[in-house]
Amino acid sequence: MDNGKKPQDEQELLENGYKKYCGDRIDVYFNKCLCVHSGNCLRGNPAVFKFGRKPWIITDAADAEEVARVIDTCPTGALKYIWKTEKP
Ligand code: SF4
After folding, report:
1. Quick check: is 55 in a domain?
2. Which of 17, 39, 67, 87 suits 55 as a labelling partner, its CA being 20 to 30 A distant?
3. Mean pLDDT of 56-79
4. Which residues contact 41 (CB under 8 A, 6 or more apart)?
5. Contact at 8 Å (CB) between 69 and 28?
6. Which atom of ligand 1 is nearest to the CA of 71?
7. In what residue span(s) does the Divergent 4Fe-4S mono-cluster domain sit (predicted)?
8. How many domains is the chain partitioned into structurally?
């Protein structure tokens, strides 16, 4: 990770109420208790994030870099990600 944030530990996220949405190169994690419905994710990429759809997150509907970029706009940390492969 090169975004200056502490790398997330999957076990820690799952123990803290996050649900996992698997992707090919990146996994997304969501904790609904932390979501304040700001809509940043929905506006950021509606193909990946869409409330009311099941699943509401389709991780591979965009490039992994794009998914990470949108998640970085989440104001509360309700969305997190972990890279499964090295970034190119
Ligand atoms: S950006 Fe974060 S807080 Fe806002 S709606 Fe999406 S998950 Fe919820």
Report:
1. yes
2. 87
3. 98
4. 48, 49, 70, 71, 73, 74, 79
5. no
6. 1
7. 21-82
8. 1
